[in-house]
Structures are given as C-alpha cells and as structure tokens.
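User: Working on a comparison across species. This one is ORC1-type DNA replication protein from Halogeometricum borinquense. Can you predict its structure so I can line it up against the others?
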Amino acid sequence: MDDDTPKRDDGTRQINHSDTDDVASTEDDSSSAASGGNTTSGEPVSGDAKSEEELDGEGSPTDENPATDDDEPVTAEDIDIRESIGPSGSTDGETDDDSSTDVSLDEVVLDDGGSDSRGLFDDLLSGEPIFENKEVLRPSYTPHELPHRTEQINQMATILVSALRGETPSNILIYGKTGTGKTASAKFVSQELESTSQKYDVPCEVEYINCEVTDTQYRVLAQLANKFIEKNFDVIENELDRLEDLRTRARDTPDLLADTSFDSLDGVEERIEQLETDCEEMETVPMTGWPTDRVYSTFFDAVDYNERVVVIMLDEIDKLVEKSGDDTLYNLSRMNSELSNSRISIMGISNDLKFTDFLDPRVKSSLGEEEIVFPPYDANQLRDILQHRADVAFKSGALTEDVIPLCAAFAAQEHGDARRALDLLRTAGELAERGQADTVEEAHVRQAQDKIELDRVVEVVRTLPTQSKIVLFAIILLEKNGVRNINTGEVFNIYKRLCEEIDADILTQRRVTDLISELDMLGIVNAVVVSKGRYGRTKEISLSVPIDETEAVLLSDSRLGDIENAQPFVQARFDN
Ligand code: ADP
Ligand code: MG
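Assistant: Here's the predicted structure for ORC1-type DNA replication protein from Halogeometricum borinquense:
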C-alpha cells in the first residue's frame, strides 16, 4: 500500500512562485483594449493607414513606400525595415477611441447652446435607454433556466444523486466547446445538489475550482485544503458551543448525560480538549512555500476530518493539465482508497476534446468513468437562449425582429457559442445606445460582430509570446511592403534581422516554421502548403487579421516597441 502516497512528483513542482491567487477575471469586456471600434480592411497593402490617421489626428509622415503601385510585386529585398515600421503613428496600442459611436464629446458639450444649460451627461441620460437590465447579458450572470441542456443536466444529476445516498458518485468528464453551457450547467447542478443535501441533512459538499485561475497542483490542493479547514472550524465551533453548554448544565444536573453518548462529565471534558487540540493543529496552507506533500496531506486530513461525500468540480481542467501535468488528477483520483471517513468524486470540465490524450492511462480511466458531451447549439437553440435573456435585459420593443436571429446565426457559425451570441446581443445594444438609436437594428449587430472579432484578434496578438510576435511582425513588414506569396524563408530572414535589432535570441528556421503554424492555428495568419513541382513544397503565408491594428498591438509590447527606436538597418537582404 505504500505506493498510495502522493509522492509521484516528489517535490519537483512543489513551489509555486506566483503567489497571487487573484481571480484574474476572465470575463470579457468587449470595450477593452481594442484599437478602435471601426472596422478595418484587412488589405495586405500598406499606405492605407487612413482610418488610423483620422482617429489619431497625427498623420503618418511617410506614406511613400515602394509597394503602393500594386502592379509591380515587390520582393523582400526592397524592404527597408525602419521605413516600414515607423509611420503609422507609433501607436502604443492606445487608439482607444470609440469612433463607432455617433456622439462625440464635442457634440455633447457644444449642444449646450440652448437656454436651459444642459450638462455633459444630460443628453446621454435622456436618451431613451435600450436596456432594462444589462447585467443579465453578462457572462457572470447565472441564468435560472438553461434551455436545451435538460438532457445533460439530468445525466449529471443521475450520476451525482449517489452522493445524497452517502455513496461515492462515479467521476465525470464533461466535454464541449466553449460557450456550450458547461459551466452554467455544472453550477446549476451543484447548487441543486447542495440545497438538496441541506434539505435532507446529508453531508454532501461541492467544491468548484476554475483551473484557468487555479492552475497548479499546489494551488488546487491549497485552495481545497483551506476550504475544508474553514468548514471544519465551523463544525468544531458549533460542537464546542454545544458541549460547553452541556458541561455547564450537567454540573448541576448530572442526569442530563444519560441522553448523550458521554458516561461522565470527564468524558465531556476530554472531548472538549480533543476538539480544541484539533483546532490548534489545523493550519491553513499559505499560498506558496510548502512542499506539495505537506499541502496534500493537509488537504487529506481536512477532508477526512468528517464523514462526507465531496464532489470536486474542476472547470477548465485541460488548462490545469496543460500547465502543470496530471499529477493533481493522479493524486486526487487515488485518494478514496485511503480516506476513512469521507469520499471524493471528481467532475472535470474540458473545452478540449482531446486533452485526455496527455493523461496517464490510469488517470484517464479513473477520470472518465462517465462522460457527458455538450454539443454545440444550433441557430434555433441559440435563438431560444437569447430570447429568454433578452426578455429581461431589454426594454420591450427595443429590439427589431431581425436582431436575435442574426445574433444567433453569427454565433452558430462560431461553433454554436452561446457566449458569443450573448456578447453580440449586448454589444449591439450598447452600440445602439451610444448612437442614441431608439431600437437595436441589424446594422448594430453587424457592427458588434466586427468589433468583437477585432477585440479577439487584439487579445490573441497581445498575449503571444515574444518570439511569435517577432515572427508575426516580420510577416506584417513583408505584407506592408507588398510582398506576395510570402514564404517561410523570407519570413525567417526578416525575423533574424528583427531579432538582431532588439537583441532577442534567434530561433532556428524550423522553430520559426512551427511558430508560423501556431499563428495559423490561432487564425492570425493563413499558411497554405503549395507544391513547387520538383523544387518541393513550400508554405505561402498571408495575414488574416487587420494589418494596422495588429501592428499597433505588436508595437505596444515594450520589447517590440524598441524596434522603432533601434538603429536603422538598411536593407534586409536574403542570403540563403
Ligand atoms: P462553457 O462553460 O461551455 O464555455 P458557459 O456555461 O460559460 O459555457 O456559457 C456561456 C454563456 O452562455 C453563459 O453566459 C451562460 O449563462 C450562457 N448559456 C449557455 N448555455 C445556455 C443555456 N442553455 N441557456 C441559457 N444560457 C446559456
Ligand atoms: Mg466554462
């Protein structure tokens, strides 16, 4: 039995340096970070920075780059990198305008010409509001009804009901793409489970952990340990109150003890002392610093302190495995054989259908005792979901009749993502509100779609690793200079020059090719393999996102920002 101890990672990963357990809110905020709400052309030609100039006031000094005559395909040799980078306003990603709104601050203030002095906010306030309760459309809102998820919810309930009978439910793995209602359904079920357990007074508890935030074994175990320690304290405190009261009364009336499990006052005294010692021994886990073994055993003791069935929900479990491997799951899934009072059951939720490929086979079979799939919603289902929310969120008559079907149709294309559908509807409403429209129209939905798409791109690009950013920047430079059919070699050459400029490590061409494939998978570039006959095959790469915004985001990175100030280097020559 000695191999049942959680030694598998004996200390290799025990210390977790990032000690903030801040709940980095993953809630989207579509008004964030985007460089401008205007939709932009994705044309791969430069000199088209018009929209940016207009927005920023400061126009670009140079627009004379060699590529604007588009008949003459420019080769990579013609590129002067310094020239190419500079112009479009050296933005630092803060083109934080909202040019999509029709009301500018100027207008609002100037509108003041009338007799009654209207302030900055009057017009905005007096506009007929579109929303009744916008919060209902936010991802943080938990709906009370989940249309089209009855089947999955019933499946979960059928498995978890054992917990209410004091038995250990099978472990469950839930799969489905983002926005298919996994988190919402799981939370709904856990609320029901806990409230029923209270109703019948059975010891059953659910712990929800979002592994995107709590993403190391240390953190997961520490969070669980501390939750249970807290619960144990509560239980002990109540018990102590009760016993101290009993002690006082039993001193006067010893017969009282006849109805209890205690033979004598000394027994009560002993129990009180025992509980007090337990309390002292229960030490909460600090956010960093302990060896993992110690965190694990603290958690183990805390759970096993009382009789209970515990369901541990690990949402975004694929993120945990990706970041920290499967040690956590390995240790958790083996606990039941050692626990004496309690039982645990794991419910893993994953966006990635293939994440179990990376698991130890034992973990995989244990975790996947039951599997539930959340299929994407189709457009009709999304309509229902939106309608339910819209009824509460909007003033009556605020939506024209095309709005919900269009949001549903867009989101259905986006792998049936209900989150996207709700974002679209909310953003469309916000755009209408800012434009002081009386109703939300189809056009607002289209505008919202563009805005959300741009926000997504900005976010993806912003969070790329530096090396990928340099590779992407190289592709942008080539495109801005009108190079067509860009191949990996060309990207690599520019990439090398950029690395030299900012003193970054230069990866091998092979690695750069991998990074290009990753950018392709993220939808930032499009790389198609073309056959060159007897010269073999090559990749042709093109940008699939708006060039100016992307460039602005890249330059807002302090490392890449240096490229602008770096020593000019004249011509990028390719000497393969
Ligand atoms: P997932 O966890 O699968 O990525 P969520 O459960 O977070 O998806 O759902 C995304 C958003 O869509 C949430 O705001 C959620 O409330 C909403 N949602 C998903 N499915 C439904 C449904 N069937 N009915 C109502 N709202 C839903
Ligand atoms: Mg989720």
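For your comparison, note: The pocket of magnesium ion (ligand 2) is lined by residues 182-183, 315 (CB under 6 Å).

User: Helpful, thanks.
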